[in-house]
Every structure is written in C-alpha cells, then in structure tokens.
Amino acid sequence: MTGQNNIHIPLVDLGAQYRSIKNEIDAAIANVIARSAYVGGTFVEQFEREFAAAVGAKHCIGVGNGTDALLITLKALGVGAGDEVIVPANTFIATAEVVSALGAHVVFVDVREDDFCLDVDLVRKKITKKTKVIIPVHLYGMPASMDQLLALAREHGILILEDTAQAHLATYNKRTVGTLGVAGTFSFYPGKNLGAYGDAGAIVTNDGELATKCRMFANHGRAKDEKYDHQIEGCNSRLDGLQAAVLSVKLKHLPEWTKKRRAVAKKYTELLRDVPELVPPKTFAERESAYHLYVVRAKERDALRMHLKEEGIEAGVHYPIGLPYLNAYRHLELNKPDDFPVTYRLQSEILSLPIYAELSDPDLLRITDTIKNFYRVS
Ligand SMILES: Cc1ncc(COP(=O)(O)O)c(C=O)c1O
Fold it and tell me: What does residue 343 show for φ and ψ, rounded to 5 degrees?
C-alpha cells in the first residue's frame, strides 16, 4: 500500500521536464512541420553542429539510436569476423550485441567495484593479437579509467570506442567523455540525460575519414548529396528532423540539468552518510559524473526496493543480470559466479534511486527518510 498522502516519485520524470520547456519544444516541433524538414536537412545539421561543439568534437553524425551508433562506428573501423572486442560484463546489452552482429567475438571483462566501469588490470589480461577495439562504457554517467585504458590501447595498437550512452557532458580530466578515444557514441533514448521524443543517437569523432565513413554507412552508402550514387552497401539509420529540433532545444538546458543532477547526487550522499547498510557512488578527483543514475549498493536490496515501492517511490536495478549471465551469452560458458565476481555480486546489491533535474528537496528527503526508516537509522 502506498503511504497516505504520498505522491508517486518516479525513477525518471519526463513529464516534469517537458512542462519546464513546453513553449520552446512546442514551437520547435511546429517549426519542423511548417518546413517539412523531416529527414536530414537544416534541423539535423544544426543539432549536429551544436552537439559537436557541446562535447568538443570536430564531427557529429546523427543516427537512429545509440545501438546503431555503436554498430556503425565499429563497422567503419573495420571490425568483422575474427576480431575480438572487449566489453564490460556490466552494461546494457547493446554494447555487446553490436559486436556479435558484425561477426566479431565479444570478450567480457569484469568491472571495478568502486566505479562500476572496466577494470583495466583485467582488460590487460584479456588482450590478444585479435583484439581490435576496447569499448569502455561510462556507466551510470561515471567516466571509466580513461588514462589507463588509453595508455594500454596505445601500447597494443588497439582502438578505444567510448560508449557514452549514459554520460552526456561527463568529464575526465576536464575533457568531455566521448572525445577521448577514436570515437564516442551517444544514445538520446527519451530517459537519457539528453533525451529525444523517440529513438535517436549520435557518433562524435575528431577523425574526418572515420566521420565520412560513418555518415555514408548510416545513409545507404551514399556519397554526400548524391541520392542514387551508392559507394558501398550501408543501412538506414538517420536522425530525423523532429528529434533533432527537440534535441537542440534540450541541449541548451543540458549544462544546467547536469549541474542539478550533480547537486541531487551530492545531497543523496550527504543524507545517506549515516546508513552503514548503503554504499553510495564514489567520487573521483579527475572525473565528473553526469549522474545518469544514482546507484547505491544496498544490503537487503530487494526488500528495500519493495519498501520504497510500498511508499510510492520507484527504484530500479541496472542491471539485474550481468551480460555473461544472460541466456543470450550462455554459449560462451562463462557464467559461473567466479568468472565475473564483481558483476555477479552487483546483481544483487545495486539499486538506482530517482534522479532528475526537477527532483525537489522535499521528495529527496522523503526518499532518504524512507530508506533510513527501512534500516531504522534515526
Ligand atoms: C550503455 C548503453 N549503450 C548503448 C545503449 C543503446 O542506446 P539506444 O537505446 O539508443 O539504442 C544504451 C541505451 O540504453 C546504453 O545504456
């Protein structure tokens, strides 16, 4: 039973965000319709320019979604049969399934307990002559150990492709993630920190040749502006005008929203300091998380989640099953607890608490009080 007078607190509140920018969004959508600029064209080009500038990359290619962004970039990098690609064991399946889709081998590596991202020492052990790309995922918005990964990749002549789906405007040593490796891929799925009103994604890179290849592959292998002159076989994965216009409006607000997410995270950590049953996300001097999710490690996680639900508070688990433990990867026969001990343990400990720019102080306090009440901390 939801506690009396307790209004539901969702994990993500897209309605609250829309209400805060309704006039701008409605005008932008009307403008696209008035100009019939639905696929490609001025709104897409404008967003690509703005997003490249926002992250500090030379090129941005808008695509259909974050999964395609990964697939197209790997394809443009020449990944195919016989290649190995290193992927974290704890991430969303998209990071891994694109590797298999290209006929290459997914090589899972466990994550660190303190940042939930790739463990570089373990990555080193999995490198072989066939390793072509490492895909660090800046999970929950927290940048992975990029200096160490880039040094390791240089040493072995391997490429780093950053899966930045959850980390818009996160920084590592003051540089925006997604621009540190050969390319970065973004998802603009509605619930992401920068979310479209449907599926959308982007690739950013400083490599002009790679950008041209990605753009060509994403648009039926077309040479620019040549509708029926196909240089290669590609696919159809384009950002559409409506999504681009929505994203341009939201991008203006993203720095402020990111600041607010960071402030919410800081308050959570302060308010939950005295709860020994919880481990809050760690902070690092050289990294600034975008806090796509605020993930704690909790004793009695499932009971706590149920208690929050009964009090009208939605919490999530990202992800309840580590990738090697999914049926989809059963054939790899790497699904014993000891194969990926951190990922295995996190499955039963991690809990994502509500976080968004519009989360009010009273709601935040209600969430932390409810948690304290569950553990009976006064
Ligand atoms: C880490 C990660 N990679 C890739 C993706 C795929 O993005 P999309 O849903 O836009 O295809 C997501 C989205 O959930 C993600 O969280």
Answer: -55, -40
Q: Report strand pairing: 159-163 vs 183-187.
A: parallel
The tens digit of pLDDT for each residue in 248-268 reads 999 999 999 999 999 999 999
- CATH code for the structural domain at 253-375: 3.90.1150.10
Does pTM top 0.85 for this prediction? yes
Q: Which overall architecture, per CATH, does domain 16-249 show?
A: 3-Layer(aba) Sandwich (3.40)
> Residue 33: in which H helix or E strand, if any?
helix 14-35
Query: Which ligand 1 atom sits closest to the C-alpha of 188?
Result: 10
Q: Which residues line ligand 1 (CB under 6 A)?
A: 65-67, 91-92, 94-95, 137, 163, 165-166, 187, 189, 199, 201
CA distances from 156 to 20, 32, 137 (A): 48, 47, 20
Q: What are the residue boundaries of the structural domains of the chain, listed by start?
A: 16-249, 253-375
Q: Distance, CA 185 to ligand 1 centroid (Å)?
A: 9
Nearest residue CA, atom 12 of ligand 1? 165
Shortest-distance Cα residue to atom 14 of ligand 1: 92
DSSP type of residue 98: H
Contact between 110 and 345 (Cβ < 8 Å): no
